[in-house]
Design goal:
By secondary structure, the chain is an alpha/beta fold. The chain is built from seven helices and 13 strands. Strands 1-2-4-3-8-9-12-13 form an eight-stranded mixed sheet, sandwiched between helices. A three-stranded mixed sheet has the order 7-11-10, with no helix packed on it.
Length: 350
């Protein structure tokens, strides 16, 4: 069992316009230096990518990061994508009557405590829309403001992929750390696989882990069309990030980008070990494995990667792995797989 040190690490986005905030965990007293080999060597890092409508400390991610360091002596790095968690995107707040409110750093005037984004960075790319999200007060007289993401989980997919590469470059150049394994939750799993499929020669990854990842991205278009047909209004996704109300109005441009992500291209990774973990709730909706991901989506990575994909089910775990004991069970599966993969020489088939 190793001691754990945590260090705040910031880096610039690939476009140079945002400051992304992250957390590095590493064994106490370790000396940094580039890894010369496979997973788990000195100076090696497991990169953790959060899912859509989430942040770097969502669900089990903080527990997994600290456990990999304490149990395996593995350094980890997790960060907030643009518009998520502690990474700001410069969008302002709008109250429900359309009047401007809040601050330019992405934190609403009405928010308290740890709140949302804290970085004062310039606004680019996105449109700021009036946010009409009810909440907070039961009598309905007061409504919370909500923040519309300028870069969102759909239309911003490829930007987030490039920012992931920027994170890897920063760790190497500034801290002499080498990312040799990437673990992504849900949408983060899609990013992890696309990163490996497109940049495996550049990165030399020794392994990829995906947790509760959706494979069929066309489902977003189907859901969008169904909501629009039923309500006659745009589809607005609403959630909270660190207690801050957030929303995104799904556009045709978003759907075009996200549904065109070539998941099938991961077939080129058959020389790289991949672990696919899925929560399993017996009482979940019919056809759903973890309450969100359809059972048929599990076949995607397994069939594309053939024998290179190890499939594991986490009983009693929902999509966000928040159930009692679920983070520990998931962590144990990941640690066991990493231990089996550790120090193996992997030569990806190019």
């Amino acid at each position: 069992m190793e001691g754990v040190e945590e260090q705040a690490v910031s880096f610039r986005s690939h476009c140079g316009k945002f400051t992304l905030r992250g957390t590095l965990t590493r064994p106490t007293g370790t000396h940094l230096g580039l890894s010369a080999g496979a997973i788990g060597g000195p100076g090696s890092v497991c990169l953790l990518l959060h899912g859509g409508m989430a942040h770097k400390d969502s669900a089990y991610q903080k527990h997994l990061a600290r456990s990999l360091t304490a149990d395996l002596g593995y350094s980890t790095f997790r960060f907030d994508f643009v518009g998520c968690g502690e990474t700001g995107d410069g969008t302002s707040m709008y109250s429900t009557d359309g009047n401007r409110g809040g601050h330019g750093n992405g934190v609403p005037a009405s928010s308290t405590g740890s709140g949302g984004g804290s970085a004062a960075v310039p606004a680019v790319r996105g449109q700021i829309r009036a946010a009409r999200v009810a909440g907070g007060v039961e009598d309905g007289k007061t409504r919370e403001t909500a923040r519309e993401q300028s870069r969102n989980m759909m239309g911003g997919f490829w930007d987030d992929l490039e920012d992931t590469r920027a994170a890897i470059r920063h760790l190497k150049e500034a801290l002499s750390l080498r990312v040799d394994c990437v673990c992504g939750h849900s949408r983060g799993g899609q990013l992890a696989l696309m990163l490996a499929a497109r940049h495996r020669k550049e990165l030399g990854l020794g392994g990829v882990i995906v947790v509760n990842m959706r494979w069929d991205l066309e489902h977003w278009r189907r859901d969008h069309d169904r909501v629009v047909a039923e309500t006659g209004r745009p589809w607005v996704l609403r959630w909270k990030s660190r207690g801050v109300p957030m929303q995104h109005t799904v556009t045709e441009a978003d759907l075009k980008v996200y549904t065109s992500v070539p998941m099938g291209s991961i077939a080129s990774l058959r020389g790289v070990p991949v672990l696919a973990c899925y929560g399993c709730i017996p009482s979940s909706r019919v056809g759903m494995i973890d309450g969100v991901v359809p059972v048929k989506d599990i076949e995607g990575p397994v069939n594309a990667l053939k024998g290179a994909c190890t499939l594991r089910f986490i009983m009693g775990a929902g999509h966000n792995v928040r159930e009692s004991g679920a983070p520990e069970r998931l962590t144990a599966v990941i640690e066991r797989w990493l231990g089996e993969t550790q120090h193996k020489s992997v030569s990806p088939r190019l």
